């Protein structure tokens, strides 16, 4: 005898419509139907639903969808590497946030963070150092969040220590879902050497990243449980 949708929905604190959406998205196996047309779910379905709900907060809808589809295709390693990539990106965000806070706490804002490199970098070099696509930097400039000087001879964007710090801050705050208008305000305060609020916002971001890490660990736990039910581990 199958498990009724209403029982699963109550257990997870969601609606039966949500269960139907997940099935429609193709991220759980199709359910068999009772003679009256009602869906009959199995313990395997329950494990899928529990995993989906646990992964959403830490990994988001798109990544969770990718992972669930890979598991249905029995492509365990592909699914796990998708998860690992997201976790690695979160760790880089955390490292960058801590680094940016240290800069704001220990260095003069108008000092160039050289450490042996040339004073000005290209957009590609900045993108590689901070771990953000060049297209994102161009987008932030287009939206007026970044104001980048140009070389008078060739028209190329110029990046010195100040611009690099700004891009670091933008990337970190965007990782915590701060809107661009708030980020503009933070950068404006930095331009006027009002560092205190910028530090506070970045420290709040670290709290958010820690919370996200907790959610990801919980999601991975349920992912492992699902893999055991599917006998993939």
Distance separating the two termini: 26 Å
Largest sheet: 2 strands, antiparallel
What's the mean pLDDT score? 88
Strand order of the largest sheet: 1-2
Shape: elongated
> Which structural class do the helices and strands define?
mainly alpha
Proportion of helical residues: 55-70%
Poorly predicted regions are 108-117
SSE string, helix = H, strand = E? HHEEHHHHHHH
**What gyration radius follows from the Cα positions, in whole Å?**
23 Å
Total DSSP helices: 9
Count of DSSP E strands? 2
- What fraction strand? under 5%
Characterise this structure.
The protein has 233 residues and is mainly alpha-helical. Helix content is 68%, strand content 2%. It contains 9 helices and 2 strands; from the N terminus they run ααββααααααα. Strand 1 (32-33) and strand 2 (39-40) form a beta hairpin. Helix 7 crosses helix 9 (195-229). The longest helix has 35 residues, at 195-229. It is elongated.
Break the fold down into its secondary structure elements and pairings.
Elements: H1 5-12, H2 16-25, E1 32-33, E2 39-40, H3 43-72, H4 76-106, H5 123-130, H6 134-142, H7 161-175, H8 180-191, H9 195-229
Antiparallel strand pairs: 1-2
Helix pairs in contact: 3-4, 3-9, 4-7, 4-9, 7-9, 8-9
């Amino acid at each position: 005898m199958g498990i009724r949708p209403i029982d699963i929905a109550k257990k997870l604190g969601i609606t039966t419509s949500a269960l139907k959406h997940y099935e429609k998205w193709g991220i759980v196996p199709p359910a068999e139907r009772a003679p009256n047309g009602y869906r009959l779910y199995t313990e395997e379905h329950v494990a899928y639903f529990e995993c989906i709900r646990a992964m959403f907060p830490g990994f988001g809808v798109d990544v969770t969808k990718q992972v669930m589809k890979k598991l249905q295709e029995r492509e365990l390693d592909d699914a796990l590497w998708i998860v690992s990539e997201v976790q690695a990106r979160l760790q880089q965000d955390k490292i960058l946030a801590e680094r940016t806070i240290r800069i704001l706490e220990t260095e003069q804002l108008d000092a160039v963070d050289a450490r042996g490199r040339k004073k000005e970098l290209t957009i590609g070099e900045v993108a590689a150092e901070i771990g953000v696509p060049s297209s994102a930097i161009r987008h932030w400039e287009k939206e007026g969040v970044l104001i980048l000087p140009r070389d008078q001879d060739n028209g190329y964007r110029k990046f010195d220590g100040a611009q690099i710090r700004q891009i670091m801050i933008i990337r970190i705050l965007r990782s915590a879902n701060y809107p661009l208008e708030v980020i503009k305000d933070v950068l404006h305060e930095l331009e006027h050497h009002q560092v205190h609020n910028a530090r506070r916002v970045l420290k709040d971001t670290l709290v958010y990243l820690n919370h996200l890490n907790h959610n990801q660990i919980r999601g991975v736990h349920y992912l492992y449980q699902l893999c055991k039910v599917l006998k993939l581990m």
